[in-house]
Write a sequence for this structure.
DNA sequence: CAATAAAGGTGACTTAGGTCACCGATGAGT
DNA sequence: ACTCATCGGTGACCTAAGTCACCTTTATTG
């Protein structure tokens, strides 16, 4: 019953795993559901398992000393949290905060399995390396943006990324939300958005933004 | 002869590698020397080997579109370049620039070996994961600084990191160099340094800075 | 439907930090 | 000793972006 559910999640999002690996994951993994806005991972938390996302959407944030947040990237079904892998392997605490933005289901793999999986299953091994690589690059892109770009460029990049990642042309978000993700302030974002609207790049509405390019 | 040189480098900086692994590295690795200011890796370059640093000092930069540089972290003897590992595995191009700051020797390991090493040698496997983890955290710290901190805090952090990493209380660097690493401008750095000097934290000299805390 | 909260707009102001112009001090090479 | 490049100091100025105050519009709820 529960086994079949896990089976179908793996088949739809991790179909590239070899059959034996799937079997191990089905036997040892457990499903965990998160409601919207629930945290999957908190800064300073100790990891006992690594998480494969099988349903929903997760936002990863870095937290500043004074409690403000900085959005780094999304985790979607088929993704794993690189940080949870690294921390799990090393049994150290998490350095980021992960929050579900919609109801989310994670397949939790106990850390004790990590070493065996890496050694025994080629597809797992490549999946993990691929995950590291993608997140590493994602972080480098984040650094590019905040190190070299001004706020209007960062906003444009942010919006494009949202539209692309979420595969939509209409983004449900308030100006305040964006300001929070970019560690800026609502007024600044509002003003910059208005300029983008004047250039015909977006259409602004209450609680959502349309992409026009 | 050359074999013995590699042997001694490995023994002094990678003594934790298991004997069989050392043998493989000695048989398949080649030493490559870099003069000061030479690049080990350029943005966009394709990687055919992963590099273990056995001598010298390397600075890793992210490059902006307009050619300016942003310092991320040092590689020292005993370190490997996480990026070269990831890119090597995936056979993709490098995303960063690595420059020797003093004469440097790297032990080059052909990418073709990577998979075998990971599977066969536990100490290599842990070394690679440890490398990923450390660099990941280093990048997160970089993001913290540029996302949440003001220039004076970033400068203070930068200096402390230099003094700590280079294990010295007297740093050979010009104000312009620092400005370049932090992607700021010389005048700004000079002014902030002066304030630090007035607070008794550093002593400023031509071409070097002393740490007083 | 009145009350309230949330979202967004806008002008005025402040400030960190980037830029410009120019200076003097230091040190290396001829 | 003279020349020239590099390094660092400084005042004046500019601009992006953060902050404050206050407003209107829209949606929600009792």
């Amino acid at each position: 019953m529960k086994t079949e559910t896990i089976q179908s999640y793996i088949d739809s999002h991790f179909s590239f795993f070899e059959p034996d690996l799937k079997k191990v994951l089905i036997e040892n993994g457990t499903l965990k559901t998160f409601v919207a806005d629930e945290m999957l991972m908190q800064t300073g938390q100790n990891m006992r398992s690594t998480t494969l996302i099988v349903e929903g959407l997760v936002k990863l944030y870095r937290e500043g000393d004074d409690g403000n947040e900085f959005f780094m990237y999304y985790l979607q079904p088929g993704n794993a949290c690189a940080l949870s892998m690294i921390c799990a392997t090393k049994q150290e605490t998490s350095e980021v905060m992960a929050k579900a933005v919609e109801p989310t289901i994670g397949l939790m793999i106990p850390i004790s399995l990590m070493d065996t999986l890496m050694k025994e299953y080629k597809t797992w091994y490549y999946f993990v390396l691929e995950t590291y690589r993608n997140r590493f690059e994602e972080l480098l892109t984040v650094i590019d943006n905040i190190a070299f770009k001004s706020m209007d460029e960062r906003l444009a990049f942010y919006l494009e990324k949202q539209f692309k990642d979420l595969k939509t042309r209409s983004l449900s978000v308030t100006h305040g939300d964006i300001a929070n993700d970019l560690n800026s302030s609502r007024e600044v974002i509002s003003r910059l958005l208005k300029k983008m609207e004047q250039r015909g790049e977006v259409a602004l509405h209450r609680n959502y933004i349309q992409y026009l390019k």
Helices of chain A lie at 2-13, 19-28, 82-90, 114-120, 122-148, 151-165, 175-181, 186-198.
